[in-house]
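Q: Structure tokens for this one, please.
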Amino acid sequence: MPELRRATQGEEEKILELVKKVLAMYGLETDPSETDSDLSDLNKYYFENNGWFAVIEYHGEIIGSYGLFQIDKNVCELRKMYLSPGHQGKGLGKMMMTDFINKAKELGYSEVILETNTRLDKAIGLYEKYGFVGFEPPHLSARCDYGMRRKL
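A: Here is the predicted structure, written as tokens:
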């Protein structure tokens, strides 16, 4: 059974490999110096900044991830939500979304934003099921072309 757990320092490279694998399916690439620089140090960018990072582990392999990144006192961002292709469609995305929303509330946030790419239609469908709606953020990272948000 896949286990959703807190990510630990030192797993950054494995998480980046998951992100690379999923993005490649959609013709997108990682950018460790910009968009994905937060994966260089989970403690610095997440845990020490009123955030959280979780992974799904299955038979010793990281097959899923999500990050909860602080934007300001009230707003957090859902980042790095990825699920390995062979494990999609099994309810694991729902498990991560439920965990993320509960964690965001627990940490005191009142709104969540996210950036995505319209090629990731399965992900957008999941976000919509959880009450996210489209909006135009002030900035989008290089590989993203669509913003969404949700009140908590």
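A few notes: The CA atoms of residues 4 and 56 lie 4 Å apart. The radius of gyration is 14 Å.
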